[in-house]
Amino acid sequence: MSNRTTAKPNDLSAFWMPFTANRQFKKEPRLFVGAKDMHYTTHDGRTVLDGTAGLWCVNAGHCRPKITEAIAQQAGELDYAPAFQLGHPKAFELATRLVDIAPEGMEHVLYTNSGSESVETALKVALAYHRAKGDGSRTRLIGRERGYHGVNFGGISVGGIVSNRKMFGTLLTGVDHMPHTHMPAKNAFSRGIPDHGGVDIATELERIVTLHDASTIAAVIVEPVAGSTGVLIPPKGYLAKLREICTKHGILLIFDEVITGFGRLGAPFAAQFFDVKPDIITTAKGLTNGVIPMGAVFVTKDIHDTFMTGPEHLIEFFHGYTYSGNPIASAAALATLDTYKEEGLLTRAAELGPYWENALHSLKDCPNVIDIRNVGLIGAIELAPIAGEPTKRAFTAFLKAYEKGLLIRTTGDIIALSPPLIITKAQIDELFDKLRDVLMNNI
């Protein structure tokens, strides 16, 4: 007879939850059982306003009819098709649709299943591109302090969040990191793009290039807006200066747009919002409105064509996933793009941005607030930490907000906000009224 314990259907112990205080959660579970448009429904029948678009991904709101219908129809028509040496029409249709809204010059798409996989794909493309050009000495990758690029080994190697790195050994070799862009002494309580330090911070890349020599560096990867670390917004001139330095030294520039892609800043992609053209863009999250795992990596024609040499029967790039361009995921993404287009959601953040900004900055007078940051429909409220108990103040705010019917996200002692792009002005008011109540009550 087996000694194995059989988990009961509603036993919470078997699921080791990601990025969660598991013991605390399982004592006081917070379970969602339904969702519609801007709201979740909890297991105890309460309604919760979604202030985070799920996890930065439900840009069009929850359970949108066009998307759910497309998934059901596709599941009954073609559930799976291999992507290796075979294909199905929707994967090609989706790639064309994506290129149509992508920044100019982004002409080809590789599919993945998540933002983490998109980053791994982008890094491999960058390394292989230089080798295909006969420049195989370019193997070094440059990330940024406090950067988040998913949780696979490549992503945490170029990423710069200490907690995500410290338990996993030496990671990839040949990686260096630029400074982050957070300058509270100069840019605290900035409205929109901060004014100070952008070019100076970016110029640190020149120092790193000098240290290692440009001939060894394959790519630089940054989030245009660093989301998961607490919404760090690049100061004026920062991204343009990175582009200038990378171009000068023949280094590929990768924008990780897993969060900023698909309308979060008021343009389809941050590259368009900031008017800076990278060589590679990673996406996921909003691609399918968070409904089904899927990611996409955009590359320029030059990168793609560099691989298209040699005999035509040979594989050009030895990389891909079982579920790359999955039919059901492709159908979900196409319906998501339709929803974005029909409702003007890829530019809605530009329209609502000023109202959002004013509402967010109205919390400046709340106790323990030491900085507020915003761009598009993203916001951050940084709180003074409790002495000797880092992260506790923000986590307490998260729990109290949930009790009041509001979902926020916290990272360290920072509250991050990124609501679905369908949010109304009345719902913005509701969100910040509830959050003010939380912050004013001695967290």
Largest sheet geometry: 7 strands, mixed
Order of strands, main sheet, comes to 4-10-9-8-7-5-6
**Count of alpha and pi helical runs:** 16
Strand content: 15-25%
In terms of structural class, how would the helical and strand content be classed?
alpha/beta
Name the CATH architecture of the largest domain: 3-Layer(aba) Sandwich
Overview of this protein structure:
With 443 residues, this protein is an alpha/beta fold. It is 37% helix and 16% strand. The protein has helices spanning 22-27, 53-56, 65-77, 89-101, 115-132, 153-158, 162-165, 184-187, 198-212, 238-249, 270-274, 301-307, 327-343, 348-361, 392-403, 425-440, and strands at 32-36, 39-42, 47-50, 106-112, 140-144, 175-178, 217-222, 252-256, 280-283, 295-300, 369-375, 378-383, 406-407, 409-411, 414-417. The chain has a seven-stranded mixed beta sheet, sandwiched between helices. A four-stranded mixed beta sheet has the order 1-2-3-13.
List keywords for this structure.
443 residues, alpha/beta, Aspartate Aminotransferase, domain 1, Aspartate Aminotransferase, domain 2, 2 domains, 4-stranded mixed β-sheet, 15 strands, 37% helix
How would you concisely characterize the structure shown here?
This protein has 443 residues and is of the alpha/beta class.
Note the topology.
Blueprint: H1 22-27, E1 32-36, E2 39-42, E3 47-50, H2 53-56, H3 65-77, H4 89-101, E4 106-112, H5 115-132, E5 140-144, H6 153-158, H7 162-165, E6 175-178, H8 184-187, H9 198-212, E7 217-222, H10 238-249, E8 252-256, H11 270-274, E9 280-283, E10 295-300, H12 301-307, H13 327-343, H14 348-361, E11 369-375, E12 378-383, H15 392-403, E13 406-407, E14 409-411, E15 414-417, H16 425-440
Parallel strand pairs: 3-13, 5-6, 5-7, 7-8, 8-9
Antiparallel strand pairs: 1-2, 2-3, 4-10, 9-10, 11-12, 12-15, 14-15
Helix pairs in contact: 3-13, 4-13, 9-10, 14-16
